[in-house]
């Protein structure tokens, strides 16, 4: 039976915990300890997701296992879990945001590295450091350890937690726990726990650390204590902060749990933002479950956690006192499968053609959105309604005992509040009138878009026919029919296969160099089609040596991408060992030439450039048939047509480069200064690397300055991101655009773009917005929060 002792005073608790500490300190598994009985995993050992009998390694007692953890739909996490109970509760994962499919493997290589390969052959490393692993063990503490030939621990899962700590596991400063997305959904969630470098243990919503007043919703107040400080989860079940002098400086858990072998324990940052301690009897009985022992913070309800229901939603408590998120009338969930995602309105509003009679007020009793009001009035409820109704900018009025607070969309931190007289007065469209208008406009846009796309496709195909016919008739120029050969694999849409000789002639022997990049050299060429038709020919280097079929298969992905802000690929050559791509020619050069010349582009031009580039990257990430990570976003890879419309070049080429299954500094993709910090770590690369590169480039667009300028007299201005951040923190953003009257007259937009840029270059990829969100923030549709200070300077 579990023995739970309730302590009533901090002094008594501290004395008892100190006693427990000195008794048990020699038995706790600190990083240098490796004395537990274990079952070694030798070099060359492999686990298979497809093999029920060989999909995990168990600890000596079998209480814990490491391997492939099934999450449904044929997907797996590489993780650690409680293995002897029906729940199989997950406590750690190496790939929580990128599950692998059946057919994946985990291996301890003969070279002494540990990683996993997904079903597509993509390698991800758990550990590939300079010290070689000799063996690995899954310990009965739930800790996966990797040891060297002299039996010293060189890596352990206890030092890289996900959302859970186990007894004996200590959390060091600046090591972070992230909640899960939802119960049963193990993706990175919305809440974070971190023991900061100032020794303060803090809970805060993800992306809102350091943001006043909506930052931390729990803190220990221990800042200023001399480092190092550890968060200790003792074998006795006590949770506390321990100072460098081995003194308890803060009690996190007010309970002690009997630590007999009959009970499991864990402490988890749950998806609702609470740090909860759980206990469960060690029994396979499915009628048993985890019991909550303590909850941090203990003085808040679920609706007291900032942002728990996202934008425009509001929180109410269910019968278990957990958060339930609702949407106001005529609003719907952004993601119906995830009520915590927030809500969107199902009608249109705005000041253009605004008529109050088309709207009415919906009243919600005891509901409040406490932040973000732009005007406060002293009046009665009916006058409050009337004031909001007459104001086209007002989407919500909160009435609270003679005070009327007017707010614009979006709203944050909505919650049920039993304050007497509290009313939320929400402006909505009468009937479905505005919704119908929105849908009609949307249908019209779709019809126009479909017509334009179809018409463009027809014109493009006809142009190809004309080109082919002309080239066939004219001697001395590339004859397309002789270079176009049957494609035995799935045809590459709209791409012309050229002979090498024809491109050699068109480029005058590859003499006119337009530029050089990480993928190869670009030459200017001319085809005579009755008129001079200019092209750009990229001669690829380091192309993957897998033959013509694979090359054309990869090109089929690029050939199916069509967007206003992408450079159009016209054709290719894969003759012998020659690999060339033929693009439309861009008359106005690169964005770098445009930005960093002696004549500074206007502010309006720069805003449109930023939006155009963001739309192009969004298309690559989310809208094309096969999503593409560019890996080398920079001003030199953004070209301008004759109307100065930005077009992204070199997308999709990363897959055509030679690469092996390892990740080293020498094969990091991208350009110095624009490379995201995760390229230098043993973590998976995601689309967020392009967000980081865009962020650096956005700051360059704002300031018309290169990311690094060694010619600056003031050394503080050498690294652009550092200079921008310092000016932003000082409230002197105007210094970034000195002498530009147009930009100074649009300072609100400048500040918004600066904040977006700083969000994009956050060190932690999960804190960066997606490119779709970047567009919404740049356009002012979504309010941009104060960016945290944890960004990384350009490398």
Description:
InterPro entries: Bulb-type_lectin_dom, Bulb-type_lectin_dom_sf, G-type_lectin_kinases/EP1-like, Kinase-like_dom_sf, Prot_kinase_dom, Protein_kinase_ATP_BS, S_locus_glycoprot_dom, Ser/Thr_kinase_AS. The protein is α+β, with helices and mostly antiparallel strands and 795 residues long. 21% of the residues lie in helices and 27% in strands. It has a six-stranded mixed beta sheet with strand order 39-43-44-42-41-40, with helices on one face. The longest helix is centred in the middle third of the chain and has 41 residues, at 433-473. Mean pLDDT is 80; it is low at 1-14, 16-38, 208-214, 433-449, 470-492, 656-667 and 791-795.
pLDDT < 50 runs, ≥5 residues: 1-14, 16-38, 208-214, 433-449, 470-492, 656-667, 791-795
* Contiguous helical run count: 13
What percent strand? 25-35%
CATH superfamily of the largest domain: Transferase(Phosphotransferase) domain 1
- The radius of gyration is 30 Å
State the end-to-end CA separation: 57 Å
Helix/strand/pairing category? alpha+beta
